[in-house]
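Backbone geometry tokens:
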Amino acid sequence: MDSKLLYRLKEGDRDAFNTVYWRYSPKVYNTVLYLLNDSDAAEDIVQELFLTIWEKRGQIQPELNFEAYIATIARNLAYNYVRKAFHNNQSVEDINDSNLITNSDEGAIEAESLREYIFNVISSFPEMRRKVFIMSRFENLSHAEIAEKLTISERTVAVHIYHALKELRKVLGDKAVAFLFIYLSM
């Protein structure tokens, strides 16, 4: 992104903010919609994200990766949304609370407990599936990089990831898989 635009945003230029909003909101919306499968939640999170960007515009560092900054905020908001679903024992689609940002100690304890449970499920995978999944989701390696490191085909990598996600969905449900993508990659 043009660093001049980010400097303008940092200084409170509303036109710069509008440009940033229109450039990134569709991507954020589609990502969150994919994770949560809830269009209302995705819209809420997009609005909350850009409200946060506007409120914290003075902290923007134009020389750093702005897309990563936005992705981190989106991931945190989606994580909090999913965490609320787990806390209330609801499906993600049933949550209508627009107060998405929370930092309670109780929530952190619940999140850590769920994280440990997910890691236990992953540890039960066959060895190669576990390695591939960890390299993909936690080390952020591409299929090609994983294939090269493990001397297997990219197609085999894709199959292992597919089966790992299928197993996670079966054991944990769709909302836990969304949680996995959001929280564990932080």
